[in-house]
Design a protein that fits this description.
Layout (H helix, E strand, L loop, with lengths): L2 H5 L4 H4 L3 H18 L3 H8 L3 H8 L7 H10 L10 H11 L8 H9 E8 L10 H9 L7 H14 L10 E7 H5 L5 H15 L4 E6 L13 E6 L5 E6 L2 E5 L2 H17 L3 H13 L2
Parallel strand pairs: 1-2, 2-3
Antiparallel strand pairs: 1-4, 4-5, 5-6
Helix pairs in contact: 4-5, 9-10, 12-14
Length: 287
């Protein structure tokens, strides 16, 4: 490994020099909240955020917005301490604005620094596995329609996120794909075939396991939609869901435990990685 590689920032927050800022703010928020005798839920009700969001901010994995810092400074009797950080927070948000949509940035940071990533996909191939042509088709068919500049930016961001597959130390990744995901010819025959070849290539990586859940499975432990599980270095597992454009980062330990349990059952029910590879190869040969 070269010295340049060793010094390269691993996350968007590190690249922008904001990791320390958000971690320090999170610690201050937690200290002031506890000194005030408020639970995360009670504090969240006062500032208009859920306990999951408060927990994420206190752990430094979600950006505390300027308006929250304004309210928190008064509610927690911080004496202007939190307000002093608002200019730096605004500048950090401004620098980050060109990377990902605002609602996605906290998750993007978590994903880039995770030591484990686990995904359940029931509609389309996961973004970290997508080819450029597949990703472009997904974004170009989204409703309401996106303009061409936005489409190309989203594709570029998605491909940039895929660097997590090759970083070192390598994170452990696993995927459970519904069989229908392999059958849906998004982008047409050529794009579909290229995407199946991409799945086979990535499934051969030492740190990646791809499993297929057969459509013929009669019982299923999860009918609630796709989700991601991430284990950030030094932090507990978190879950992420997105339904009809409404994202949710789940940090509550009990809620996360239930999703982890469902995922474990699905991995046990799905085809083993070698059988999944054989099925993908079979479907590719039938195109």
């Amino acid at each position: 490994m070269t010295e340049e590689r060793e010094r390269r920032p691993e996350t968007p927050a590190e690249a922008e020099g904001t990791t320390g800022l958000f971690t320090a703010l999170g610690k201050m928020l937690k200290l002031l909240r506890e000194r005030k005798g408020l639970t995360q839920k009670e504090f969240g009700l006062l500032v208009g955020y859920g306990p999951d969001a408060v927990s994420a901010m206190e752990r430094g994995v979600r950006v505390p917005r300027p308006e929250l810092l304004e309210k928190a400074d008064e509610i927690l009797d911080a004496g202007g301490l939190l307000k002093q950080a608002i200019p730096e927070v605004k500048e950090a948000m401004k620098r980050a604005r060109t990377r990902h949509p605002e609602w996605y940035r906290g998750y993007a940071v978590l994903e880039s620094q995770a030591v484990e990533l686990h995904h359940y996909c029931n509609q389309a191939v996961h973004g970290l596995l997508q080819t450029p042509a597949y990703a472009r088709t997904v974004f170009s068919r989204r409703r309401p329609l996106l303009d061409e500049e936005t489409i190309e930016k989203r594709v570029a961001d998605r491909l940039d996120r895929q660097q997590v597959l090759n970083k070192w130390p390598a994170p452990m990744l696993s995927y459970v794909l519904e069989e229908v995901v392999l059958d849906r010819p998004i982008g047409g025959p050529e794009v579909h075939a290229e995407q199946l070849r991409q799945l086979l290539r990535i499934s051969g990586m030492r740190n990646v396991e791809i499993q297929v859940m057969p459509t013929s499975t009669e019982q299923h432990p999860n009918m609630d939609g796709a989700f991601n599980l991430l284990v950030p270095q030094g932090h507990p597992t978190v879950a992420y869901t997105e339904v009809q454009g409404y994202p949710r980062l789940i940090t509550d330990l009990e809620e996360v435990r239930k999703i982890v349990d469902r995922y474990g059952i699905m991995r046990a029910m799905a085809l083993p990685p070698t059988e999944s590879q054989a099925l993908i190869e079979k479907k590719l040969g039938e195109l």
